[in-house]
């Protein structure tokens, strides 16, 4: 195997689950989404894997792969729109147009939201509840303790360990260095 193929294997191992989840969330047919996943990494390989040749960060490489995945989504949507439709409902058409008409920055933002939600899902329910109350709802420690019905010291402890676990989950996804 060449160095580029070995590097591509590393890319697929590291970023593959996130790319696959992104494509599955944007396309209605899982088999076609799997084909698009393979097409994404084939295009990355054909480009000579330039992301691995320079001093790029994990976030830049992830963004490059998601840009390729988005292009594959758009290409498949355009190809499907040229074929005669069997039966497409209004909701399905709206979902398709939403998935392919987002600007790249909005797509990146939505991808980040999805990845943060996935990281939050990896926390224990008690840690997740405290982190969401404090950091996303902007509540104080006292308000959170009263709302959940636990002592303030427990809120502080869960916030500390929950934030550590969230950071570790985000690091595994390549979102945080």
Briefly say what this structure is.
It is built from eight helices and no strands.
Question: pLDDT below 50 for ≥5 consecutive residues: which ranges?
Answer: 1-6
Report the sheet with the most strands, covering strand number, pairing sense and barrel closure. none
Q: What gap, in angstroms, lies between the N and C termini?
A: 29 Å
Strand content: under 5%
Which class best fits the helix and strand makeup?
mainly alpha
Based on CA inertia axes, which overall geometry fits? Answer: elongated
Helix content: over 70%
Please work out how many helical segments DSSP would assign. Answer: 8
List SSEs in N-to-C order.
HHHHHHHH
Q: What is the β-strand count?
A: 0
Integer average pLDDT: 80
Assembly state of the chains shown: single chain
Q: What value does the Rg take, in angstroms?
A: 20 Å
């Amino acid at each position: 195997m060449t160095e580029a193929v070995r590097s591509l294997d590393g890319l697929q191992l590291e970023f593959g689950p996130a790319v696959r989840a992104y494509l599955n969330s944007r396309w209605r047919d899982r088999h076609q989404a799997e084909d698009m996943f393979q097409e994404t990494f084939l295009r990355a390989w054909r480009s000579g894997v330039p992301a691995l040749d320079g001093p790029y960060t994990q976030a830049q490489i992830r963004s490059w792969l998601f840009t390729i995945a988005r292009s594959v989504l758009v290409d498949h949507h355009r190809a499907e729109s040229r074929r005669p439709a069997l039966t497409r409902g209004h909701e399905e058409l709206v979902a398709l147009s939403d998935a392919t008409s987002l600007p790249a920055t909005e797509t990146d933002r939505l991808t980040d939201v999805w990845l943060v939600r996935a990281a939050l899902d990896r926390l224990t329910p008690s840690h997740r509840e405290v982190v969401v109350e404090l950091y996303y709802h902007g509540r104080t420690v006292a308000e959170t303790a009263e709302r959940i019905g636990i002592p303030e010291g427990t809120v502080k402890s869960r916030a500390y360990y929950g934030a550590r676990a969230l950071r570790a989950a985000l690091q595994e996804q390549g979102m945080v260095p």
